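forwarding from the other thread:

> can someone predict this with zinc ion?

sure thing
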Amino acid sequence: MPIPSRRGFVKNLLGGLWTGAALLEQSMFRANVARAQSQSTPNLPELFDIEKVADGVYAAIAKPLPLLNCNAAIFEQEKDLLLFDAHARPSAVVSLVSQIRRTISKKPVKYVVNSHFHWDHTQGTPGYRRIAPQASVISSVATRELLSSEAPKRAKQSIEQALAQLPDHRRRLASAVSPAEKAYWDLMVRDTEAYSTEMKSYQPELPNITFEKDLILHDKAHSLHLAWRGKGHTAGDVMVYSPEKKVVATGDLMHGFAPYIADGYPSLWPGTLRELARFDFDHLIGGHGAVQHGKQVVIQKANYLEELTTRVRAASQSGQTVDQIQNAITPASLKSITGGYGDFLIGSLSKYLLQVPGASGASILEGAVRSNVADIHSRLGAA
Ligand SMILES: [Zn+2]
């Protein structure tokens, strides 16, 4: 996948959505919430690109933002909708539901599934509670526990961290020279302000239906298999699989970015990915990045995690420090990266994750591997 030019990329971003954050913040929850469920609200910014994946199955691909949203998978049932994942903030949910009303269906939302407990997949759930109060919120047992124990402090941390960076963002904006830099730092400032204002009073919305391994929802349009197949990105990742449509939605267990391992199980994750690959699907809607077709990247990612974990473990046992291990494990030294997965990651991270203007593909990949090495080192014993 080619890397888009930084300038064009930021320009697209500005044209498409960023006035959205401020707009949403000011107006959304005062008056528009109920309207989003019942009618279209064309003045809302579009935070997602919606694409049809199969009959009655759509992917809502999140446009890049500093405080990023996850993708959603939309399953249209006979009389209602199932939405897989709930983004970083309630206003993103309202924006998405409004976009669905305009472009796909006015059927009510009946189910919301949280793939895992992370902030960018669950903090929008209160938005569904307001615009679809009758909807059930579903997760694994482990995810509900993690949401209840971790989510409030994670949300608080995310706001504190964002606000702590504001002075630096403002300084960089003031000294930015090129239009691309100005646009980038302006977006950083405005999105940080909008996010922290909206999320100040956030309280997690806990799922009201949980399951251990399998839950099947039977509908005339299709059956949906909600499945937990092992620990991976977190302890509780679930997927939604439609055998009739040959589509699976996976959250961050499988997505287009480099894996995020800080809450992960590097020794177990590859096995869970191989379990995922046993499902008979043609299309995969991941938690971030583009829709994937076929299983090639799933296997590449399993191989990458395996190779990295093996090397980090061996180096750690021989007494090397994290710094030394990070310096030794370069992208070029990884077989699993040089076979195509590295190019895939560069293309995907450049297009779907906000990057500092001018960042090269090689530096993006190197940064991803370094951070993966550090996280694997800290999670070697996770089981
Ligand atoms: Zn995650």
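The longest strand covers residues 48-54. thats all i got for now
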